[in-house]
Request: fold
Amino acid sequence: MADAPVRFGLIGGGWRAEFFTRIAAAMPDRFEIAGVHLRDPEKAAAFGARWRLPVCDTLEALAARFEARGRHPVFSRMLGHYLEAMDIDAASAVLDLGCGTGIAARRIAARRQFAGTVVGIDRSPYLVAAAHHLARDDGVADHAEFRVGDAGRIDTADGAYDAVVAHTLLSHVDDPRSVLGEAARVLRAGGMLGVFDGDYASLTFGHPDPDMARRYDDALVRSIVTGPRVMRQLPRLLQTAGFELTSSLAYVVADVGTADVWASAIDTYRRLMPQAGVVTEADPDAWADQLQQDAAAGVFFGSCNYYAYVARRT
Reply:
């Protein structure tokens, strides 16, 4: 069976967006564009009409990014690895914290041996609605439901779940201790917790000027996460929250020469970098342009470490 096409979103309507649009049009069996987001609504409408693409608002663009990352074979394999380590099929009730578009919840619900129910919660009503829609599209709506909720204050009785998943959540929260404490509260004794996230302090991209590379890396990390080193703290945090670490998995997600895993992230990161307040409006464009040039020349470099921890509630 052929792999499903890689699905991604476009942010911006310049030559980079047109470059990726032409590639997707030429290879529809390998790439699918979920939508396009531009700051100027008229330009967005024109671009969408020209290429017959849906026009996205900011949240739609972010959702498309979540889906592109989650569906990529590299990230899909990592998710599968730690779900197996959790023995997720044995769980009757699973909670997905900070579910986003429901990548983890839908994956669990789709497993052939899983006969339980997954509940996903997220603070964004938009993402919860997107997760509902995608679950229906995937044919797993009977086993997955999604609600608006706060991972730091879960509206659930103590011991209600057999397993809890926090997939790419902890690096984005202000207080990971409260999230882990809530996970411990809603898990039954002996229940399993799976945490997956990036060690974003290791996120780095190549650049001809090493000093500029460090500056861009720092700006990017400050823009996209709250806790870039949280996965280094997690063994201690898990123990404090009442968990016993049972297994850990480590990965290096790297593109060398050409951009693959990181290709869909470049334009998203380009828009987020100015939020760090340490780069000018022009800098992110120069950064993204250089990475695209590096990829075309076969000298691209992008890398980040990722970790999965599986722990048992004591």
Remarks:
- The first strand starts at residue 6 and ends at 11.
- The longest helix spans residues 282-297.
- The chain has a mean pLDDT of 89.
- Residues 37 and 57 are 6 Å apart (CA to CA).
